[in-house]
Write a structure and sequence with these properties.
Bound molecules: flavin-adenine dinucleotide
Strand order of the largest sheet: 8-7-6-12
Distance between the termini: 20 Å
Order of helices and strands: EEEEEHEHEHEEEEEEHEEEHEEEH
Helix content: 25-40%
Number of strands: 19
Radius of gyration: 21 Å
Number of helices: 6
CATH superfamily of the largest domain: FAD/NAD(P)-binding domain
Structural class: alpha/beta
CATH architecture of the largest domain: 3-Layer(bba) Sandwich
């Protein structure tokens, strides 16, 4: 198991490249004035690149905003630590993993969670009856759907598609779906709907994600604003891997807009090795054309080799982003 320090990096390494890094919370974007409003004051810009990631739309699940302790999930750091504590204290019973409607960040993530919980409880000798309650009609991403179903069958994980959770009733330990069905649990991890920061909507850049051109990442409304990664409405997987390529492509087009002649980066692709256990991972790869149309996909069954490839892939990605 990894420690938090192993997965944590600082943006301050960017300073070595001569980039000014300011730690501040941005509260608003004023596109007409070419200005952002931040907790440490406002900042004017000629070009703006937004990569604020995902916001958890807790308010779309009844009772959740008022009772955040009802839930713990791994899409945020504090939730990850809390979920670990709950898993370690779990004495057995019904476990529910609730999946939001696509698009959400790390599409295989909730299904990996279910598989790893299954392995953890089996090894510990804790009886866990695990269900995946999915808003979608099949496990994500779609090219892995059938492979996930095969894995779930082998592990005796119950899969419940087309079940959008709309309420968490923590007092009675049950989830309520859009069909009015009640699903009881002893341990729950509910991933709320994923949306971009509210300031993107408030500044007219798009809702629920920033509307951008999938080639240049330029806002469809404001010519000097770019948005990449999880906060952008693009056909690419919401993953760290595509976010990196999106950033490189956006930087290319931003540099061109500023009058620089720069080499065109590679088209965007995604590689991911979702865990089905701590010993095995699957493979999913997707390649897109420059205009965002899907060019090809490849998917493969769980293998130990892919688990090993994942470790190498992760360390290469982190090194290229943060230098270590
Ligand atoms: C459990 C889990 C597992 C994952 N596994 C993988 C994987 O194996 N492979 C993979 O490729 N991807 C994986 N991902 C997905 C990946 O983490 C995201 O897709 C990726 O981080 C998106 O990058 P981003 O730059 O768009 O957003 P983020 O990495 O979320 O960065 C956004 C940044 O903006 C900052 N920010 C937000 N709002 C403000 C504001 N108002 N003011 C100032 N700063 C702000 C945030 O603090 C954050 O630092 C996983 C995600 C999860 C949750």
């Amino acid at each position: 198991m990894k420690r938090l320090e192993d997965a944590t990096r600082s943006y301050y390494s960017l300073r070595e490249k001569g980039i000014k890094v300011i730690k501040t919370e941005v509260g608003g974007i004023l596109p007409e004035e070419n200005k952002i409003i931040a907790s440490k004051g406002s900042l004017a810009y000629n070009y703006l690149l937004i990569s604020t990631g995902i916001r958890m739309a807790d308010e779309e699940i009844l009772q959740l905003s008022e009772n955040p302790a009802y839930n713990a999930h791994t899409w945020e750091l504090e939730g990850t630590i809390e979920l670990r504590r709950r898993i370690e204290n779990f004495k057995g019973g019904k476990v529910v993993v609730s999946v939001p409607s696509a698009p959400f960040k790390c599409p295989p993530g909730p299904y990996e969670t279910a598989c790893l919980l299954d392995e953890f409880f089996r090894k510990k000798g804790v009886t866990a009856d695990i269900s995946v309650v999915d808003s979608n009609d099949k496990p994500q991403p779609p090219p892995l759907a059938q492979k996930w179903l095969t894995v779930f069958e082998k592990k005796n994980i119950k899969y419940m598609p087309n079940n959008k959770v709309v309420e968490i009733d923590g007092a009675n330990k049950q989830l309520v779906t859009d069909k009015g069905d009640k699903i009881g649990y002893d341990l729950v991890t509910l991933i709320p709907p994923n949306k971009a920061s509210t300031m993107i909507k408030e500044s007219g850049l798009g809702d629920p994600f920033a509307d951008v051109d999938p080639t240049t990442f330029k806002s469809k409304k404001f010519g000097n604003i770019f948005a990449t990664g999880d906060c952008a409405k693009v056909p690419y997987t919401k993953s760290a891997y595509t976010a990196m390529y999106q950033g490189k492509n956006a930087a290319h087009y931003a540099a061109m807009a500023m009058g620089y002649s720069v080499k065109e980066p590679a088209p965007i692709h995604n590689i991911c090795y979702p865990y089905t256990s701590s010993a095995e991972s699957m493979l999913i790869r997707a390649d897109w054309e420059k205009d965002g149309k899907i060019a090809k996909t490849a998917a493969d069954d769980p293998k130990t080799d892919y688990r090993d490839s994942r470790a190498a892939w992760e360390s290469t990605l982190l090194k290229s982003l943060f230098g270590s």
